[in-house]
Amino acid sequence: MILKYLFAKNEAIPVGSAAVFFGFSAIVWFMIGTGLGSFNAAKLAFPDFVTGTEMFAFGHMRQVHVLAVIFGWISMAFAMAMMYITPILGNTRLWSEKLGLWNCMMWNISLLLGLSLMWVGVTSGREYSDFPWPLDLAVAAFITIPLAINVWMTIIKRRTQGIYTTNWFFAASTFMLIIVFLVGNLPEYFHLTGLTEAYMTWWFAHNVLGLWITPVAAAIAYYVIPKVTGNPLYSHRIGHLHFWSIVVFYSTPAAHHLMSAPLPEWLKSFASVEGVLILVPAVAFVSNILLTMQGKWNMFVENLEVRFTVVGVLLAIPLNMQGGFQQTRSINWYIHGTGWMVAHAHLALLGFSTFLEAAAVYLGLQTLMKRKLYSLTLGNMHFWLLLIGFSTYWISMTIAGLIQGAGKIYEVPYIDVVIAEHPYMIARWLGGTMVFSSTILWLYNMWMTAREGTVIPAGRMPHELAYER
Amino acid sequence: MNFREYKIGSRMFGMAFALSMSITLLFPSYDLAASVVSEIGLDKQLTSGWDSGWQIKDPWLDGLNKPLKVLVRKDPKTGEPMEPVYAYVYSAGTSLPNGVNHPSNLGHGVEELSVNQGRIKEAKIENGAVFLIKKSDKLLDFEDKPLHYMENATATKGWTPDEVLKQAADSDILHAGAGKTMFVREGCWWCHTLLPEQTQDWQVFGAPPMLGDFNGESPTAFGSDRKGPDLLHVGSRNASKEWMMLHFFNPRLVQPHSIMPRFDYLWGELDADGKKIDFKKWRSEYDEYREGKITTPPDVPMYAKDSEIRNLIDFVVNLK
Question: Does residue A236 sit at the B interface (CB-CB below 8 Å)?
Answer without folding.
Answer: no
